[in-house]
Design brief:
Blueprint: E1 3-6, E2 12-15, H1 21-35, H2 40-44, E3 55-63, E4 79-90, E5 94-105, E6 108-121, E7 126-129, E8 134-137, E9 142-151, E10 173-176, E11 179-182, E12 186-194, E13 203-211, E14 218-222, E15 235-239, E16 244-253, E17 261-270, E18 285-288, E19 294-295, E20 306-312, E21 317-319, E22 327-328, E23 332-339, E24 346-356, E25 363-365, E26 371-372, E27 379-384, E28 391-396, E29 400-402, E30 406-409, E31 413-420, E32 427-436, E33 442-443, E34 448-451, E35 457-458, E36 462-463, E37 470-477, E38 482-484, E39 492-493, E40 497-505, E41 511-521, E42 528-530, E43 532-533, E44 541-542, E45 544-546, E46 552-558, E47 562-564, E48 570-571, E49 575-583, E50 589-597, E51 605-611, E52 619-620, E53 623-626, E54 629-638, E55 644-648, E56 650-654, E57 672-676, E58 691-696, E59 703-711, E60 721-725, E61 731-736, E62 745-756, E63 758-763, E64 765-766, E65 772-773, E66 777-787, E67 807-809, E68 816-822, E69 827-835, E70 840-849, E71 854-860, E72 867-875, E73 878-886
Parallel strand pairs: 3-11, 18-24, 26-32, 34-41, 43-50
Antiparallel strand pairs: 1-2, 3-4, 4-7, 4-8, 5-6, 5-9, 9-10, 9-11, 12-13, 13-15, 14-16, 16-17, 19-22, 20-23, 21-22, 23-24, 25-27, 27-30, 28-29, 28-31, 31-32, 33-36, 35-39, 37-40, 38-39, 40-41, 42-45, 44-48, 46-47, 46-49, 49-50, 51-66, 52-56, 53-54, 54-55, 54-58, 56-57, 58-63, 59-62, 59-66, ...
InterPro entries: Ig-like_dom, Ig-like_fold, PKD/Chitinase_dom, PKD_dom, PKD_dom_sf, Secre_tail
Protein name: PKD domain-containing protein
Pfam families: PKD_4
Length: about 900
């Protein structure tokens, strides 16, 4: 088994395991002999099949022992000893690489090189130096061949331990292509002198060469030693104008950076030449269909000679008869005569021009009638000619061209085949007609327009394909949407966009498409609406509607189901009116709002009072003398068994001097309060079992209740309430008293409730033994009285206004009144009742009035609150109004 070892210089060599010193030297000699072979490592490890290119040799150059590349010229042929340097790259950083190869000088195996370089390799431009110098013959080409590279993994030094051939894996080795070793640039050339053409002196032919440096090379010749470059090719000729020894200089520049140059100089002897006239009429030529004239290629090396051509056997010279290259255009024999300038010596030569203008034959074949359909969309056309090597050219519709013998076409029309004989350029042509059956007449219809009125439309597609052979499909794009009928010619669509109709003919396989565009007109009109205040005189107002958009309609909606299609309708009810303006052309609409306010109405004056019982005597009380007038009060005492005493137990109690057991009602600032007394005596003593206090405002009229204060509402009064009632006993408001604790105080909000005729205070609860309980005191009862004011709308006619023949009696009224009116024209009428804010309260009566006759309408005010109302009767264009005052 073979191993790789490193010597003390860091070099590695193949050897048997652990050799003795003697065996080691013998083994080195054996390896050296083996390395002379052209594939040393392949013989040492023949089974390796390397697959990696991770570590590669980029370039190889010769350098001195210090690593300086050899650049100075040496004498060709002398022996040079130098050190071989390798520039290596690696894709992955690693340590150590074994590199082996054979140096060839002028293509001959010369020296083997091998070494394991135990250094870190990273990226490109890693320079490795072989430790042993090599011998090189200056001027000879040197190459490194049979290159083998092996390496290890990662940061492990590949050159530390012996490595067997079998341990080198294919993924860690590489075989490189031969590399030219960079050596000193050496320029050289050879020169040969000879007499050429009719030159008087010899012409020097030089052939330059270069080795070393870096190819490719550039060449510069100086034939006169005057510093001027006369030629820049590797091989050149130069004709001298005198005899003698001439200095020739060749400067070679390589491709390295910076570039290197070398110059080689040699002396060349130039002799005189004798002048011998010669004539060469050139090669025979042929005229063809494409070459109707030719230029003869006569030549002569005689300097200063004159030339003359003569045509015979049908030949014709077009021009240039006194030159070496005349133009001729006829078959025949042409003779060139060359005459020297000195002595008039002549020499002649003959050239023959022949003619070949025979046209080729041309044929077109097809496997069947050339007819195109969508299922057979192509046709095969074949060309043929008996001429050997004939060329073919097809032309056809839409600029069709082809140069093959056979073609496959997909467009109907006339196709022309032109056959050309390559021998003479002559042509012949033939035509064939290809027909087709592919046409489908298809239309997606006219473009259409959607609008607010027409939110969907039906497209109008049409086609020439019969229904039983066609399949239809529509597709929508650019926002379009197909509602139905996507596989009919007339689908329904509801969005602007592009609609593509596709029809397929199942008989011919042909299909066609067409496009229709649907747009949207959704431009809205302008809308302006103007309202105002109902007239005091008529109770009506004419609304104003307008639009800057021509061709519109108007529609109004308003309170109580009001509708109108007039532009400026008259209304009699206050509220918000909506005007809708619709553009007739597209059905789009816009809205505007008009506010109608009622006639100015009198707001009743409020006179507010506070009853704190300060003027009332201590003890039982049945009437409270309030600032607004007498208010009846009755206290329903509840007994322990839940029954109520029939007598009045309402009493005035002094909180600053409590009596009985009512110390929990003590205050320093409330003074007189209203309680339910336990006894029928004038000694106030708060009843402990609960009850009810009822205050009756019948003598003052309806009042507006604001608030009152409550004292000592605790857990024993957890179900205590205050109720407010109207004139018919209906409940208007209620509020629960808050159980805030013993001797607690609270102000009860009574909601500014209008129309109150009675107030009931209920004291109810349970004590800790779950027995009936309930007590408390009340103070500062706040309420207001509404007083009538004059109607600010002076134009509203009074009940007795003679001008409109409408009156009401009695007036004021407390429960019922009768309205009388007379219309100039008879007809149907409707009578409605409004409050002073213009709100419709109810319809009073409908009927038919006779012209000029008195008509009555009854008004029932029992369910109404005290106040001022308007009765309005409308018949056609006549309107009657009357003010009604309700005072109960």
């Amino acid at each position: 088994m073979n191993y790789l070892y490193r010597n003390k210089y860091g070099e590695r060599y193949a050897s048997s395991p652990k050799p003795s010193n003697m065996k080691w030297h013998l083994l080195m000699l054996l390896i050296s002999a083996l390395l002379v072979s052209s594939n040393v490592f392949a013989q040492t490890c023949p089974d390796l099949n390397c697959t990696s290119n991770d570590v590669t040799v980029q370039r190889v150059y010769l350098a001195d022992v210090n690593g300086v590349p050899l650049t100075s010229a040496c004498t060709p042929g002398e022996q040079v000893q130098a050190y071989l340097h390798l520039v290596v790259s690696t894709n992955t950083p690693r340590v150590g690489a074994f590199i082996l190869g054979t140096l060839k000088i002028d293509g001959m195996a010369d020296q083997a090189v091998a070494n394991c370089f135990g250094v870190a390799l990273t990226g490109n431009n890693n320079i490795l130096k072989y430790p042993t110098p090599v011998n090189w013959t200056c001027g000879k080409k040197i190459m490194l061949v049979d290159i083998f590279v092996a390496w290890g993994t990662g940061n492990t030094d590949f050159c530390v331990n012996p490595t067997t051939c079998s341990s080198i894996v294919p993924s860690k080795c590489r075989r490189e292509a031969p590399i030219v070793v960079e050596a000193p640039l050496i320029a050289s050339f050879t020169a040969r002198a000879s007499c050429t053409e009719n030159n008087r002196y010899e012409t020097i032919a030089v052939s330059g060469s270069a080795t070393g440096g870096k190819a490719p090379y550039t060449y510069a010749w100086d034939f006169n030693n005057d510093g001027v470059t006369d030629a820049t090719t590797q091989n050149a000729t130069y004709t001298y104008m005198s005899t003698g020894e001439k200095m020739v200089k060749l400067t070679v520049t390589d491709s390295s950076s910076p570039a290197k140059t070398d110059m080689h100089t040699s002396m060349v002897m130039v002799n005189a030449c004798c002048t011998t006239p010669d004539a060469n009429a050139g090669d025979d030529m042929v005229l063809t269909c494409t070459t109707t004239s030719v230029v003869l290629n006569g030549s002569s090396a005689t300097m200063g000679a004159t030339y003359a051509w003569v045509a015979s056997n049908g030949g014709n010279i077009v021009s240039g008869g006194a030159t070496l290259t005349p133009t001729v255009n006829a078959a025949g024999t042409y003779t060139l005569t060359v005459t020297t300038a000195r002595g008039g010596c002549t020499a002649s030569d003959v050239v023959v021009v022949a003619e070949n203008k025979v046209a080729p034959d041309v044929n077109i074949s097809t496997p069947s009638v050339p007819h195109l359909t969508c299922t057979t969309p192509t046709a095969m056309l074949g060309g043929y000619s008996s001429v050997q090597g004939a060329t073919y050219k097809w032309t056809g519709p839409d600029g069709f061209t082809a140069t093959t013998q056979g073609i496959e076409v997909s467009v109907a029309g006339i196709y022309t085949l032109t056959v050309t004989d390559p021998a003479n350029g002559c042509t012949a042509s033939k035509q064939v007609s290809v027909t087709e059956d592919k046409e489908i007449i298809l239309s997606a219809g006219l473009d259409k327009e959607l609008s607010c009125k027409n939110t969907s439309i039906m497209l109008d597609g049409s086609t020439s394909v019969p229904e039983h052979w066609r399949s239809v499909s529509w597709t929508a794009s650019n926002g379009g949407n197909i509602v139905s009928g996507a596989h009919t010619l007339t689908p329904t669509v509801n969005a602007a966009g592009t609609y593509t109709l596709k029809v397929v003919n199942s008989r011919s396989g042909c299909e066609a498409t067409d496009v229709v565009v649907v747009t949207m007109d959704d431009t809205k009109p302008t809308a302006q609406a103007t309202g105002g205040m109902l007239s005091c005189a008529t109770g009506a107002l004419q609304l104003k509607g307008s639009s800057t958009t021509p061709g519109v309609t108007y529609s109004w909606t308003g309170p109580n189901g009001f509708t109108s299609i007039e532009q400026n309708p008259t209304v009699t009810v206050a509220g918000t009116y909506i005007l809708t303006v619709t553009k007739k052309s597209n059905g789009c609409s816009a809205t505007a709002t008009a506010i109608v306010t009622p006639q100015p109405t009198p707001e009743p004056e409020l006179t507010c009072h506070m009853e704190n019982f300060s003027d009332e005597k201590m003890g039982l009380v049945s009437v409270l003398n309030t600032p607004a007038g007498p208010v009846s009060v009755f206290g329903h005492k509840r007994n322990p068994d839940g029954s109520y005493a029939p007598q009045n137990h309402a009493a005035i109690f002094d909180t600053q001097a409590p009596t009985g057991d009512d110390t929990d009602l003590y205050t320093v600032d409330w003074h007189h309060v209203l309680i339910i007394n336990q006894d029928q005596t004038n000694v106030p003593n708060d009843n402990q079992w609960g009850g009810e206090l009822v205050l009756d405002f019948a003598q003052t009229g309806p009042v507006v209740m604001t608030s009152m204060r409550a004292l000592d509402i605790d857990g024993y009064e957890s179900n205590s309430w205050i109720y407010l009632y109207g004139d018919e006993g209906q409940e208007l408001y209620k509020v629960k008293l808050q159980a805030l604790g013993n001797n607690s105080r609270q102000t009860v909000d009574l909601g500014n409730t209008r129309g109150v005729m009675k107030m009931k205070i209920v004291l109810d609860g349970r004590n800790e033994m779950m027995h009936l309980a309930g007590s408390g005191a009340f103070d500062e009862l706040k309420f207001c009285i509404e007083n009538e004011v004059e109607n600010p709308c002076n134009e509203v006619p009074m009940a007795s206004a003679e001008s409109n023949k409408a009156v009401a009696y009695p007036m004021p009224f407390s429960d019922r009144t009768t309205v009388e009116f007379t219309f100039v024209k008879g007809g149907e009428y409707v009578a409605n009742l409004y409050d002073l804010r213009g709100n419709l309260l109810k319809e009073l009566q409908k009927g038919t009035a006779q012209a000029g006759q008195l008509t009555n309408v009854e008004v029932d005010g029992r369910s109404l609150l005290n106040g001022i109302y308007i009765a309005r009767i409308v018949s056609g264009n006549e309107v009657k109004t009357v003010k009604l005052i309700l005072r109960k």
